[in-house]
Amino acid sequence: MPTPQSTSIGPSGGIGPYPNLPHQHSPGSLNRQEPLYNPFNVYANGVEIALYNAATVPGTFTDTTVPRVTVAAAIQNVDGDDGNTAGKAEADRFLAEGRITAEEHKKITTTASPKTPGVGPSAPVPSRSSAAVPGNITLATVLTPNGTTLATMIKNVSFPRTIQQLADHNSTVIGAQNVVNNLAALALNCLEPIKAKYPNVQITNSFRHGEVKNGQKIPDRGQHGSGQAMDLQFRGVPAHSYFDIAVWISKNIPYDQLLLEYKVGTTVWIHVSFAAPGLPFGGTSVRKSKGVASTLATLNGAAGGKFTPNLHADIIQGALTNKVVLG
User: Fold this and answer.
1) Which of 38, 72, 229, 302 is within CB 3.0–4.6 Å of 87 for a Cys-Cys bond?
2) Axis-axis angle for helices 102-109, 86-96 (nearest 10)
3) What residue ranges do the domains of the chain occupy?
């Protein structure tokens, strides 16, 4: 019988037989895309492997297994919202339909009181001026000197939008061209420096075109609708680490509004918006319209827009299992 061969990661990242090849990586460091969970104590033929829905790395997570998906997990405000009432409306509907109990509804929609003052606003960070984007707009249109394109901002995201949606929606808001100009300013001042610090950042959405109710188009008149805001998640990052990321953003990014948002027991994301000084391309400034107290906050996405001023690690720790978000 031939000598058994180990299976290992090849030089080009492929998988192939390499007899008696020692590990070339440290425990728990396999370069795998979530939702493959990477425990450091699971092997096949002597080679470390990553598993889907596997036991998590000891000492990293509070749960011994990946939490199962429940009805409550379906309550996702996938777009984020600086007013944030959609999650509460959905929770109320689930309760009325009998899909969750009154106890589950209360848990989902209750905002915990912080135990500490949290991290408040720091000195404002200077912003960079962004020129108007010239020419006909396509997904390949370059928005910044660093090469960020419109596709980066509205297509290559978790919940993509199209050029047609951009054109259809914004005749009643500030105009499609101005939305693109605002997206350029958002990319230059917020996305690019965040991405330089956290290369695993993923935009879940930025521009939001609104919805249709009773056959009538209802445009989004908030900062998402004007191209001034985006929601972010980070591949392979445990939920509790989002607090540290939000704190870094608050000290290094010239934001107009920064929200550490979560859904009890399910997910967490960061909402960040930018309002260019003087708003040359239209839109709105939360800082001016709602006051400084709403510019930096921790927010339960199913609580009906109840802001808890400042960033609070204990709220996130109490609301979420320490699981990896955005597989």
Assistant:
1) 302
2) 170
3) 1-63, 71-325
Considering only the C-alpha atoms of the chain, give the largest distance between any 2 of them, rounded to a whole number of Å. 77
CA–CA separation, 67 and 88 (whole Å) = 23
Chain CA centroid to CA 72, Å: 19
Question: Which residue type, as a one-letter code, is found at position 174?
Answer: I
CA dihedral 136, 139, 140, 146 (to 10 degrees): 100
Is pLDDT larger for residue 195 or for residue 209? 195
The H or E element containing residue 185 is: helix 176-186
CA distance 155 to 176: 15
Q: What is the pLDDT of residues 204-261, one digit of tens each?
A: 999 998 877 787 778 888 899 999 999 999 998 999 999 999 999 999 999 999 999 9
Token representation of residue 241 = 């680490």
Six token digits for residue 232: 């972010």
d(CA 102, CA 300): 18
Q: Please calculate the CA angle 270-200-122 and round it to the nearest 5 degrees.
A: 45
Q: Which CATH architecture has domain 71-325?
A: 2-Layer Sandwich (3.30)
DSSP-derived secondary structure for 97-158:
TTSS-HHHHHHHHPPPPPSS--B---SPPPP---PPPPSS--TT-B-STT--BHHHHHTSSS
Residue 290 vs residues 26, 30, 302: alpha-carbon distances, Å: 49, 45, 20
Contacts of 250 (CB under 8 A, 6+ apart): 119, 121, 122, 258, 296, 311
From 224, 211, 81, 230, select the one nearest 152 (Cα to Cα): 230
CB neighbours (10 Å) of residue 160? 14
